[in-house]
Amino acid sequence: MLKALLQQRHIQTVSAFNREYDAAASKIDSSAIGAGPKKAQFYRWLSGNISTLPYPHHCRILQEMFPGWSIEELFSNYTGGADLRQHKTMAIPPLASSISEISDIKSVFTRRAEFLKANPPQELFHEARTIDLVGLSLNILCQQCSDSEVLRMMRNGTTIRCLFLDPDGSNITEREHEEGHAAGALAHLTRLNIHMLQRVQSSRTVETGGRIHIRVYDAPVRFNLCIIDSEVCVMQPYLPFARGLESPTFVSKRREIEGTFQTFATVFEEMWRKGTEPEIEYSQGVTA
To answer: DSSP readout, 139-159?
Structure first.
């Protein structure tokens, strides 16, 4: 049965199999990466010439590779004729297909770094008319784009709304503790980012078509949202005990019927409405 399933997936060689083996191991047991079967052992598996089932770590990885199949079934005789795709959970449609059919989610990334690699902020924001951001320190704009790039956006007419977690509030202190930062680390970074935008905003002239609006909020930080042109929303949850960089990232695109995009667009507007302007300009004791 194992041989038939591998032929169906076109991974009959030991090298191709071990690549899939390592990918499955990375999800459930990183210590098993590189521990796949050697060539002779692999072909014994495919021939059925084994007296006992594989070692437990092999069994765990094989069940991850073939969900819904027991180890006994994988090493049972296959007589042909059966539709292998219809076995148990294999009949469930692929996740990506299901998402595209029922949701406005267009792509999912396991970590923010993967999203940023595929979508550099300079390209993401280059032609934007509006950019709405809420989260903690808003590094996607303030640390990924230079002063001159943000000023260029303003001169091109871009309106930017930035809602920061209040660096002088209680919830940023709680988040520092949760992420394991030194006291004041996130507060200092947030002040630095606010000051960067205040500095760019101060360069605005009468001819500058765009504008930067800055507000702060003091509430538990739940999401990092970036909404571009009221059409595309990049959403990250804040996970407990993990930095924002380590969170999965979801990209949704507005469509006619209500979906994920509209949910988070409404979240942003409600949070923006309740936000307040910073009481001071964060310029003293801050270096860029």
So the answer is: HHHHTTS-HHHHHHHHHTT-E
Give the tokens for residue 134.
Answer: 């809420």
Cβ neighbours of 257 (radius 10 Å): 6
CA atoms of 121 and 177, how far apart (whole Å): 29
Consecutive 10-residue runs of the chain (288 residues): their mean pLDDT? Answer: 84 88 86 89 85 86 85 81 49 45 80 88 92 96 93 93 96 91 93 94 81 96 94 92 82 84 94 90 48
Phi, psi (rounded to 5 degrees) for 271: -65, -40
- CA gap 195, 185 in Å, rounded: 16
The CA distance from 214 to 210, in Å, is 13
Q: How far is CA 163 from the centre of its chain?
A: 20
Write phi, then psi, for 276 (nearest 5 degrees). -130, 155
Up-side HSE of residue 129: CA atoms within 13 Å toward CB?
4
SS3 108: strand
Is the CB of residue 196 less than 8 Å from the CB of residue 214? no
Question: DSSP label at 1?
Answer: -
Q: Is the pTM of this model over 0.85?
A: no
* Cβ neighbours, 10 Å, residue 288: 7
Half-sphere exposure of 119 (CA within 13 A, CB side): 18
